[in-house]
Description:
- This protein is mostly helical.
- About 70% of the residues lie in helices and about 0% in strands.
- The chain starts with a helix and ends with a helix.
Amino acid sequence: MRSFLEKAIPSPEVDLTSRPILSRTTLYTGVFQGTTYFVASSILLIIAYILSQGPRGLSPHFLLTRAGGTHNEGMFDVHNSGVFDMVVGTVMLVFLMTIFVMPIGIVTGIYLNEFVDPRSRRARIIGASINNLAGIPSIIFGLFGLGLFVLTIGRFIDLQVLHSAEPLWGKPSLIWAALTLAILTLPVVVVSTEQALRSVSSSVRDASLAMGATRLQMLRGIVLPQAYPGILTGGILAISRGAGEVAPIMFTGAVYYMKDLPHSIHDPFMELGYHVYNLSTQSVNTDDVRPLLFSTVVTLLLVTFFLNLSAVLARARLRHKQENSHSN
Length: 328
């Protein structure tokens, strides 16, 4: 019977030596590689173009000179204007933002990953809120900060606490802009903290609990030291995001021109990103201030780079210290 079927239905011959000209795996790999190269090339082209235009006016005099001297018309003077006020304002803004966002983001990430069941309704609601917060346009954060911090909290402090009719806290200032940016960058820190905590091996947690440690002792002595480098990565991303935002601070603290540097957290300030916007839109002759514009953009990139570099060095030092403690 078997021989009859084998004769009636001949088996097709399969050539195992030949390969398809374009397999599906090769096609997908080429698409993924092409997309990656396109993104990397776009970033490199943008940076190369900015660096090719910006260093023409970049000098120590440009970095250390006040913006316009004593009058705002000097802000568009290519030969005499500088960005010292904007650099100071940007550094102060990012520093305050980091102080506000890191503790709140770290505590929220620890709570979601360590103390809440991920399948619970509470975890789903908080997770959905964080995801939606990350998708809100930045201009909405500016209006939110103006309404909540400046017009509500600030005016309440002036009227009910200080009993002053003259606005001190109820006006756009450095602290309100920093708090607005902290809310803007909060999802970045929360997600980075969660990922860093999840990267810690469960066997380490189980061993710590088996040795008699409480959950809080295990978290403080074992999990957090191993997750700190990943948590600091969230801080680095938050610095990169916050240093380049303009829309949220337009309503909450950044100003067109100031004669003096900010002396306290309730003073307005000048900022590099907002200054780029002013140079692009408020100048009478855009072509004349183009060297000043690109030099300011390069300065913003350098300030962001050095802020990120300081955070990266702190993360590397912490990681090195952690490796040495494990080896000993």
